[in-house]
Amino acid sequence: MLLKFGYQDFLDDRKFKNTTETNIKNYEMILAKFIEYCIESQVVNVEDISYSHVRQYLMKCQEKGDKASTINTKLMRIRAFLNYMVECEVIKNNPAHKVKMQKDDVKIDVFTDEQIRQMLNFYRRIKQREKTYVAYRDYMVIVLILGTGIRRGEIINLQWSDVDFVNKSISVFGKTRRKETIPITDKLAKELAGYQTFCKQYWGTMSDYVFVKRDNKQLTENALMLVFQYLQKKMNFKDVRVSAHTFRHTFCHRLAMSGMSAFAIQKLMRHQNITVTMKYVAMWGNELREQNDKFNPLNTLDI
Fold first, then answer.
1. Which terminus of the chain is more exposed, N or C, with fewer CB under 10 A?
2. Contact partners, residue 31, CB within 8 Å, separation at least 6
């Protein structure tokens, strides 16, 4: 089978299986470059892809500066494509299975208290000075992630009908397309209520969506990305990237540092597998020990 036909067939299959739009875009972006590399290497049929082609392509990516985590993501996407080709009986074995994942020294960035204060104060000043919708919206976006760990796709798809002010919760469709309920604190509920009042006054005719663009239409993923890029430039933090994921990691980090159980963190983060949660807890274990050494009550007792 020609590679370009196999690639398109794979994408059609993912769409048929109702894979999220974000994942489909990731497949398109990563696989298109791999297939382009194969064709440049005179490999035009799926059957001609070998272990060496996959490995050489990933080595080329590494030389261009891709980190271990990025290499591993690309390898997983290539494996998924070739697994599908095995299912379709185009090839007998998946050559990418022989390529080993790279060891990844995982370091997950989180914001400090001071950085969070700087960002919130930045938006508060703009809100008071200019009274623009965009400033209030962007402020509310980061407050919502810090208070719930909500994901990017869940932010742009959140509707006012999903916000339950009485029972203090919001409903989202998570990664598995399953409706999930997230508890919100009194403080966050008040922030959302204040934002809703502002939206009613500002727009007159309210959108169904909690977060909208300047034309009062649903916020897009690209528009949300630009929010964080703008904030990154304004803050100019040297040691941490300003992104939705960093805010989500900060939420998880604070839960772990508070001493919350891994099971409770898993439920709030909505991880499918607790091993993902345990990875975070283990990562911040040294920090917990340092905090314990510093603040343990026995330090001040004469025993």
1. C
2. 7, 10, 77, 78, 81
Q: Was domain 113-291 assigned CATH 3.20.20.70? A: no
Q: What is the pLDDT of residues 73-129, one digit of tens each?
A: 899 999 999 999 999 999 999 999 988 888 765 667 889 889 999 999 999 898 888
Assign domain 3-98 to its CATH superfamily. Tyrosine recombinase, N-terminal domain (1.10.150.130)
**For 237-255, what is the mean pLDDT?**
89
3-state secondary structure of 180: strand
Q: For residue 170, what are the contacts with CB-CB under 8 A and spacing of at least 6?
A: 148, 150, 158, 162, 163, 164, 181, 182, 184
Other Cβ atoms within 10 Å of 269 Cβ, number: 19
At residue 185, φ and ψ (nearest 5 deg) are -80, 165
Which residue type occupies 159?
A: Q
Neighbours of 163 (CB within 10 A): 17
Q: Are 110 and 256 in contact (CB under 8 A)?
A: no
Q: How far does Cα 247 stand from its chain's mean position? A: 9
- The count of other CB atoms within 10 Å of the CB of residue 89 is 7
Spatial contact of 243 and 273, defined as CB atoms under 8 Å apart: no
What are the start and end residues of each CATH 1.10.150.130 domain in the chain?
Answer: 3-98
DSSP track, 91-118: -SS-GGGGSPPPP---------HHHHHH
